[in-house]
Amino acid sequence: MLKKFLRAGLLGVSAVAATTLPAFAGKPNIVIGYENNGADPYMVTQGQGLFQKDIDANVTMKFFDSGPAAMSALASNSLQFMCGLGIPPFVAAISQGLPLAIIYNQERYTSAAGIAVRPGAGINSVADLKGKKIAIVQGSQASFELATFLQEAGLPFLAVRQVNMSPPEMRVAYTTKAIDAAIVWDPVFDALRAEGAKVLTTDADLPRYASSYNVCIANTHWVQAHPQLAAQFVKALDEGVTYTKQHPDKALAIMAKQAGIDEKTAASELKGYEIFSAKDQLSPNVLGSGAGVADSATTKTLTNTAAVLLKIGRIMTPLANPAKAVDSRVAAEALK
User: Fold this and answer.
1) In the predicted model, is pLDDT for residue 1 greater than 70?
2) Who has the most CB within 10 Å: 46, 184, 188, 290?
3) Distances in Å between the alpha carbon of 35 and those of 17, 53, 81, 133?
4) CA-to-CA dists, residue 296 to 241, 281, 301, 321, angstroms
5) What was the pLDDT predicted at 25?
6) b/e burial code for range 222-237 (CB count within 10 A of at least 16 → b)
7) Helix H segments across 153-288?
8) Neighbour count for residue 161 (Cβ, 10 Å)
9) How many CA atoms lie within 13 A of 272 on its CB side?
């Protein structure tokens, strides 16, 4: 990313709604950051208190309104895990040398994210975005997505008038006609559709090796020092996935409550994800295992995302070894 943007992402933290649990003597303190990405199994883990149940530590949850906003906390070690994070802010961080790794790939976006346009804005194709105002969380997954979609349409990245704003701000801007389009994810993507927005394209149009994922990341030094706690964290995530598969109706009710949406919306949003379990992490379609990590879909997506972000000036340094930032060993340990 541009240094100007990266400074904003690393210093402009807007974390809110931290909930601190009572501390118990002798246990380490762990802070887990998260975004509201709508209905996904992470919300089941959180809603059922599985992090607190499975992790032998004092666990605190902390909400962030976007991935870039969490980077400062991760860089300062005041945050041990971050979930619901898109690939671009992660790529920006590791391109700067931050010791971070993906330890769990939660899900791949299909129809739960994309470009929503305002009817009457004269936008019927991606090519029609030229000169239009599009809302975007700059530096988030949307930067990679927009660049990819524009490239496929033969448009340069700067051909569109990008307006940097948070997802909640996009809803207001859409209703006041301050923007022509938005590239965003659920629940705001779903909310814009409910308000009459036309879906121009979704993340389902992106290939698996250059796709949009929500991932959980951690400081590699911390994981090396606390491997059992990291494995317990992954176990809690996996229990949320298992519960979602075994009790879909109950899981949807939990997700809806956690995400602040109704169950019908939650069901629609969940269909827009390809969900991954702890076992799935070891597949080449997710993180991979052993030497296969280098050729996994997640690692290839890091490579392709970095290439796009470098081309459009969002990062200044190419990734030397993307596979170093993908660690499936935690999931392997959690499965034992």
Assistant:
1) no
2) 184
3) 11, 21, 12, 25
4) 21, 10, 9, 13
5) 54
6) bbeebeebbbbbbbbb
7) 167-175, 188-194, 220-225, 227-246, 248-259, 263-270
8) 14
9) 25
pLDDT in tens, 119-159: 999 999 999 999 999 999 987 788 888 988 998 899 999 99
Q: Give the CA distances from residue 231 to residues 36, 80, 100, 113, 243, in Å, rounded to whole numbers and listed in that order.
A: 23, 13, 16, 30, 18
How many secondary structure helices (H) and strands (E) does the chain include? 14, 12
Q: Given pLDDT bands bounded at 50, 70 and 90, which one contains residue 217?
A: very high
Helix axes 227-246, 248-259, angle to 10 degrees: 120
State the Cα–Cα distance between residues 265 and 39, nearest whole angstrom.
8
Residue 32 phi, psi (nearest 5): -110, 120
> Domains of the chain by range and CATH?
3-108+210-334 (3.40.190.10), 113-209 (3.40.190.10)
**What is d(CA 172, CA 170) in angstroms, rounded to the nearest whole number?**
5
Calculated CA dihedral for residues 32, 34, 40, 42, nearest 10 degrees: 0
Whether 115 contacts 200, CB under 8 Å: yes
Give per-residue pLDDT as tens, 232-270. 999 999 999 999 999 999 999 999 999 888 999 899 889
User: pLDDT tens for residues 84-105?
Assistant: 998 988 999 999 999 999 999 9
**Arithmetic mean of pLDDT over the chain:** 89
Burial of 51 (0-12, 13-18, 19+ CB in 10 A): buried
